[in-house]
Amino acid sequence: MKILYLLPLVLLAACSSEVPEKSLSESKPTTVVGELVPTTSRYFNFVPTPSILIFSETRDWRHEEGIAGANLAIMKAAKEMGHGYYTTEHSGIFNEKDLARFDVVVFNNMTGDALTPEEETAFAKWQSKGNGTVLLHGAGDDSHQDWDFYHNEVLGATFVSHPMDPQFQEARVEVLAPKHPVMQGLPSEFMATDEWYTFEAVPSDDFIVLAGLDESTYSPVNNAYGDRSDLRMGPKTSDHPIIWARCLGDNQARTVFTAMGHRYETFETTEALLILKNMLNWAAKKTDPESSGCAK
Length: 296
Ligand SMILES: [Zn+2]
Hints:
Rossmann fold, binds zinc ion, two-stranded antiparallel sheet, alpha/beta, nine-stranded mixed beta sheet
């Protein structure tokens, strides 16, 4: 009886405790987090240079399967590249000293306001030196809009929703930039099953669209939640980009995003694995020495 009597109070407390994402980050105790990250770990000193930093902190939706599948695929790809790798969910690693070990950062389904303002600045400074960034699936959702640089300059599009009718569907992906290094070895089109994201608009001309979705091959509908059920962006595959890239700043820092990668099964397909390897190699500047993939 006592528990039932208290239940409304508990529920009220739960609701009133909700705070905006940004204030969560701003209240993040950076000094404490800094002590927890590998900066003080002896093991971290054995991480080779260069390495790939695989970061998957989730302060919003957590893609357990996508994170696990991509982590393993990235580790295998890193070995083939002759790179080291390091996985963490502690954003404190985004400081000048630790980032110096890496030439690529993968935001593997990172969601929410994961980095403090100081860590965001450290990332931007590291990237401005010409280092590469790879964004996978949830790293392109709408939970990053507190970080203007990431949302506008690195990602470049605003997520709207994804189908829930059903959630995972097979669709035709068309390669739109067949000469781009990230698309090398892929067929001109292929079928893939994923949770297909829809965005408010295509990325700006600063970005190079590499692949798009044929909306006639799946049902771009979400009747489950949100304000918008019709998720169509347009009849042409170029109307609905799903992979795109950019080179940023004087040092042509390469950044590339794929909206594929909700489930681990994505990273068991030939096409997704090849895209991932190509993205890592291009971001690390191991391919495309002339930066032809930066040209429009
Ligand atoms: Zn997802």
